[in-house]
Automatic annotation (TrEMBL):
Keywords: Auxin signaling pathway, Endoplasmic reticulum, Membrane, Transmembrane, Transmembrane helix, Transport
Membrane protein topology class: Multi-pass membrane protein
Subcellular location(s) per record: Endoplasmic reticulum membrane
Name of the protein in question: Auxin efflux carrier component
A Pfam family: Mem_trans
Lineage of source species: Eukaryota, Viridiplantae, Streptophyta, Embryophyta, Tracheophyta
UniProt superkingdom: Eukaryota
GO cellular component, one term: endoplasmic reticulum membrane
């Protein structure tokens, strides 16, 4: 498979995202005013509640079975590693370059959260069908590639709608806290040392029973928030998809031409097909607003690009090489290729959905998405070539 053939395969999905984003940007201009701020927010809620869970459920229930879930046990660990590596590097970068408080969570999310579903669903099967593909017979490779990508989509959704969701949510809470402080205690308001001492004494007078009760309330609140995020619609779609995929009689009930409840499969698939176009249109709509109003330092853009497309892929090579030497991976180079690509993906477009849901960093997110997806056109192509050379040499 030649370099330029691979370049075409890897760049097409990214270019598709950029072109649809341009349409969304045009629709959000004052001339058309179709994707206004309120319209994008409402559409985001529909994507979150209906489209994304449907896409995940349909992909998993159709392509994954119990044997696959067992044999692919390393994939959730590998995805966790991508989040740990990117999140740690993003946290270090945030401490060094000190972005605005409402952008710190967005910076870490951009570094840690890759597009683990939509891009893979297009790239991996497309590589399988190219002439000279090193992954065996085209139809078998394509079927495997779609199954691997669907599983990655579901697992990635679980990480995204818990870890990344909390990052963006915390950013919005920090903004609300700062607004409250600015309202109640203006920065120019003088506070004497005496008042500070009195406040310290008052805090110290709280009884131990009150502290225990407060700690238990906080623990209950944290547990409630975790369960709330764990049971978000995308995660419910992931859980149900794996249950239906791993249970043969449930799978036959809704999946397949002869299934008695195939109307459920058709309906869910129809809803799921709207996920990528809607997210991409919203991304474009946010982009046009971001170009007008966003002020983001170039060092933040450069930092995210270096972490996502330079440091993370190099770490990924060492991780997969070590796992392969320890015989932790299936004897399928396509599986190893997908694990390597997971370290090289552009940021997940769901980050844009979350910034829209919480009304924090929307314009900055759009600008970051634009630059990271432009660079991804070249980074994905180059690293895909390196990965295939490593796996076939």
């Amino acid at each position: 498979m030649g370099f330029w053939s691979l370049f075409e395969v890897a760049s097409m999905p990214i270019l598709e995202v950029l072109l649809v984003s341009v349409i969304g940007a045009i629709m959000a201009t004052n001339y058309f005013n179709v994707l206004s701020g309120d319209a994008r927010k409402s559409l985001n809620k529909i994507v979150f509640v209906a489209f994304t869970p449907s896409l995940i459920f349909a992909s998993l229930a159709k392509t994954v079975n119990l044997e696959d879930i067992i044999s692919w046990w390393f994939m959730p660990l590998n995805i966790g590693m991508t989040f740990i590596v990117g999140g740690t590097l993003g946290w270090i970068a945030a401490k060094l370059i000190k972005p605005k408080p409402h952008l710190e969570g967005l910076l870490i999310a951009m570094c840690s959260t890759g597009n683990l579903g939509n891009i893979l669903l297009i790239i991996v099967p497309a590589i399988c069908t190219e002439a000279g593909s090193p992954f065996g017979e085209h139809s078998i490779c394509k079927s495997k590639g779609f199954a691997y990508s669907s599983f990655s989509l579901a697992l990635g959704s679980f990480y995204i709608w818990t870890y990344t969701f909390q990052l963006i949510k915390n950013s919005s809470l920090s903004v609300e806290s700062q607004e409250y402080i600015d309202l109640v205690v203006p920065l120019s308001y003088p506070t004497s040392d005496k008042k500070q001492i009195q406040l310290t004494i008052h805090e110290g007078s709280v009884s131990s029973d009150d502290k225990k009760e407060e700690s238990s309330c906080k623990l209950a609140e944290i547990l409630h928030k975790f369960l709330e995020e764990l049971l978000s619609p995308p995660n419910i779609g992931s859980i149900l998809g794996m249950i239906f995929g791993a249970t043969p009689w449930l799978k036959k009930l809704v999946m397949g031409v002869d299934s008695p409840l195939r109307v459920i499969q058709d309906s869910v698939t129809l809803l799921g097909d709207g996920t990528l176009p809607c997210i991409t249109l919203i991304l474009g709509g946010n982009l046009i607003q971001g170009l007008k109003r966003a002020s983001i330092r170039p060092n933040i853009i450069i930092t995210i690009i270096c972490i996502r497309y330079v440091i993370s892929p190099i770490v990924g090579i060492f991780v997969i090489k070590a796992a392969d030497s320890l015989q932790l991976l299936p004897a399928d180079p396509l599986f190893s290729f997908l694990l390597l690509i997971q370290y090289t993906l552009p940021p997940a477009m769901n980050i844009s959905t979350m910034t829209q849901l919480f009304s924090v960093g929307q314009e900055e997110c759009s600008v970051l998405m634009m630059w990271t997806y432009l660079v991804a056109t070249f980074a994905l192509t180059g690293w895909a070539t390196v990965f295939m050379w490593i796996l076939t040499s």
